[in-house]
Amino acid sequence: MDLGNLESLKFFYPEIVLSGTILLLILFDLFIRNKRWLGLMAFLGCILSLVTTFQLYGMSPGWLFHHMIILDNFSLFFKVVSLLAALLVVWMSLGCREIREIHQGEYYTILLTSALGMFFMASSSNLLMAYLSLELVSITSYILTGFLPHNRRSTEAALKYLIYGGVASGTMIYGMSWIFGMTGSLDYARISEALFQGQTNHLALFMAFIFILAGFGYKIVFVPFHMWSPDVYQGAPTPITAFLSVGSNAAGTAILMRFFFPAVSRLGEGGDWLFISGVEWPHFLLMVSMVTMTLGNLCALNQQNLKRLLAYSGIAHAGYILMGLVVLNNDGLKAMLFYIVVYLIMNLGAFLVVVIVANETGKEEIGDYRGLAWRGAAIPAVCMAIFLFSLTGLPPLAGFVGKFFLFAAVIKQGFYLLAVVGIINSVISLYYYAGVVKTMFLDFPEPTDPQVTMTANTSALLGVLSTLTVLFGIYWGPLVHSLH
Amino acid sequence: MIEPFVGDLSLVVFLPLLGAMVLLFIPRSMNRVLFTTAILFTSLTFFWSLRVLWRFQSDSGEMQLVERVSWIPAYGIDYFIGIDGLSLFLVLLTAFLGPIVILASWTISERVKEYLFFMLVLETGMIGAFVALDLFLFYVFWEVMLVPMYFIIGVWGGPRRIYAALKFVLYTMSGSLLMLVAIIYLAARNAQVTQVLSFDLLRLYNLHLPYEEQFWLFLAFALSFAIKVPLFPFHTWLPDAHVEAPTAGSVLLAAILLKMGTYGFLRFAIPLFPEAALAVQPFIVALAVIGIIYGALVAMVQPDLKKLVAYSSVSHLGFVMLGLFAFNLQGMQGALYQMLNHGLSTGALFLIVGMIYERRHTRMIDDFGGLWKQMPLFSALFLVVTFSSIGLPGLNGFVGEFLILLGAFQATPFWAAGAATGMILGAIYMLWMFRRVNFGPLSRPENQKLQDIGAREIVILAPILALIVFMGVYPRPFLSRMRFSAEPIIQRVESKKEATPLIFEGGRSRESQSHGN
Fold first, then answer.
1. Alpha carbon of residue A19 to chain centroid
2. B143 to A419: CB separation less than 8 angstroms, yes or no
3. What tens digit of pLDDT does each residue of A206-242 get?
C-alpha cells in the first residue's frame, strides 16, 4: 500500500482530529470566558483521536503521502502512547494551580501541537519528515517550558533548552546530509537499499550516525545529551515536565527505532536484526545505555528537589529503555515498548503527586514532603510510594515486570555485563527512591507543615494511575498481548 | 478467576492479605477493632495451616496440596504452589507466630492501622515465599516481604530506625537482584535445552548445567540467601535492624525472615546446583563456624539485651548452615529442626526483652539485676527460654544442635569441633546474661516497682513454651515429616560427590560434565 495525498487522508483521521481540535481551541479561546472548558475540549479531542487511532489498529502496513509517512502498528502504538501522555497531562493540568494562572488557551493548543509532532516522529519514513517532526516537538517544548511568566527558573530553562536543542538538531541535520550524500536519498527504504548494496565508507557512515544520534539522543535524554533535562524538568510547569519526561522520551525512542530498523538494518532470521557489517552499533549502544543509567542514578542520589530528582531518574530510565535496543531483536523491542507504557503510567503518577502537593504548599523540595502521609495526604503518599517503588522495580508492581522483560531480553542474548550494571543501578536507585518514601512516611511532620488535600479531579486521576501500576504488576498478559 | 484461589494452601497464603484489605475499611480511631480484626485473620490463617498439616501425608517426599494456575502463559510463568516436608513446618511456624506477634504489639498506640496492615502483608509475603514453586512467583513473594519490613522498622522502630530500615532494604535488595538475574538466566538456559520456557522449580531441577555455569549461578543465589541468613560476613545489617525494629518486627525478623535464607539454600541453591554446592562446601562450612564463634563472642560482650539476642542469632544460624552443608540426613534434619527451634526460642527471647523494655524503657543489662525477686513468673519463663536457646537436653534446642553436630562430625570433624566450642560459648553468654538480669540484689529502685507479667503476656508466651518442651521430648512427628523431603536433596548431592573435585583444582574434569541426569 503506497498512497498519494488524497487517498492517504482516510488513514489520517487521528492527526486530522487532533489538528481540528487545535484549531478549534484557538478559535474558542477568543469567545469562552471560563477557560476550564478549553481544557475539557482538549481532553475530548484527545479521546476522539485515540478512538480513531484504535480503529486503524491491525491493518496491513503501508505508506502515506508518497512515502513520507508510514502507517503500521508500531507507529500506531506510539501514537497511542503520545495521546495517552497528552490526555493524562491535560487531565493533570485541569487540577493544577500553576496552570490555572496562565493563558490556558495557548497552553492547551501548544500541548496538543506537541503531541501532534510526536505522531509524526513515530511515523515518519523520510529523513526530512523526521527532522520536521522533531523540530515541531522541540519548538513547542521550548514554549511550554517557558510558559510560567515572571518565573526566572522557567525562563532560564526554556533558554537553555532552546540552545541545546538548536545545537543538537543542527548536528543531526548535518549528519542527515552525509547520509543523503552517501545514498542519494532521504527515504528510509531507499537508504537501506543503497547501504546494503553499495560500497559505503564505514567510517563516514558511523560518523553520520553519531551526528544523527545527537538529535535523537537529545530527545530520549541519554548521555552525553542529557544536560538540558534537569534544568528543564525543574523549571517547567509540572504537567509539562511530566509530558516531556514520558512523551519526549517515547517519541525519541520511536524515531530512533524507526531510523534503525527499516533504514539501517534488516530483519534477519529468527527475529534478529542484521546490520551493515563493520558498523558496531550494539557495542556503541551498550556503552551509551550503561553510562546513561549509571550517570542518571548517581546524580539523582544527592538531589534536594523532587522534580530534579525525577529528571535524573528519567535519564536513568532512558538508559534502561535503551537496554532493549542493545539486543536488537524483537524480544528487546517488545520489552522496550512494554517499559515505555509502564514508565508512562508510573512517572506521570509521580508527577501528579508533585502537582497535588505543590497545589497546596507551592513547594517541590523533598524536605517539604516531610511526614506527608501523616498530614491528611495519606492517599497521595501511598500512591507516591507505589509509583516510586514501581520505578525502582519492586514486585508486584508494573515497573518490576517491565524491568524483568528488559533483563530477560538482555540475558537471553548474553549481555551479562549490561544486566549486572542494570542490577547495580536498580539498587542505587532504590536508595534515593526509598529516601523520598522515607521522608513521606518515616519522618514525622512539624506542626507548621501545611495539610494537603486533594480535589475530586486529581484523586480520580491518581486512582486510575496507581490502579494501573498495581494491575500491570500482577496481571500484565493483556498488555503484552497488545504489543505483538 | 475465583476458582483457582480456593485451595487450602492459597487460603493460608492470602488470608492475611484479605485481612489487610479488611483493615483498610475500618476507621483508624477504633484501635481495639483493628487489633481484633488482625488477630482474627491471623488466627484463622493459623487454623487453616493446621488443616494443611492435617491433609499433609507424612510418608511422602512429594510436593503436596499443589495448586497450579497459568499466570502469564507467554513467559511460562505459573501461579504454582505446593508444600513438602521442608516448608510445612516453616509455614506452620509463620502462621503460629502471626497472632502472637499481633498480640505482642498491643501496646502500640500510634498509627495502628498502618502497622497492622504491614504486618498482615508481611505474613502473606512470608508464607507465600515458603510455598512458591515457581521461581518468578517466589521472587515476587520474596520482594513483597521487603517493603512492609522497611516500614515496620522505619516508622515504629527505635531512635536509629531510619538508618536501620534503609540498611536492611539495601542489603537485601542488592542480593536479591542478582538472584533475579540468575533466575532469568536459568529459565532462558532451560528454554535452550528443553525448548520450553518455564520458571517451574521442579522442572528446573532436572536441568543439568556444566560446573562453571552452576558455580556462578550458585553464587548469585547464595549471596542473596547468605545476606538473609545472615552468614558471616554479611551479617552487619542484622544487629541494626533487630535492635531498631519494634518487638514484633524483631520477632518476625528473627523467627521467619532469617529462615528464608536457609530455606532458600535448601530449596533452591543446593538442589539446583548440587555440584557447585559441593565445591563451595568447605567455604560455607568455614564461614558458618566462624559465624558461630564470632556471633557468640560478640554476643558475650553486648551491654544491650536486644543486641545480645541479635548476635546470638548469627551464631545459631551458623549452626543451621553447618547442618545444611554437611549433606547428610542427620545434618539436614537437624538444620531444619534448628530452624524451627531458633524461630521459637529467639522469638520468645525478643518477646521477653520487649516485655521488660515496655516496663523499664531500657534494655541495658546493667540496669537490671535481681528481677527474680520482683517478677518470679517472668524470670521462670525467661529461664526456660534461655535453656532452650542454649540447647539443654529435654528442650527443643538440644535435639537440633545434637543432630547438626552428629551430621557435621561425619562430614567435617575439624569444623564440627569448632562448632561444638561455639555451643559452650553460647551457654556462657546466655547464662551470664541471665544471671546479671535475674539474680543478684534487687538494687535499683525503679526495678523494685516492676509488675510481673499479666494475662496477655502469658497468653503470648505459653504456646511458645509448650512447643519448646514438646519439641524437646517428642521430635519424631517433626523429623519423620522432614525426612522424606530431605532425602532426595541429599541424594542429588551425593550422586555428584565422586564426580566433583575440590574447587582448588580448577574446575571439573571434562568427562564429568556429561555425567548427570
1. 21
2. no
3. 888 888 888 888 888 888 888 888 888 888 888 899 9
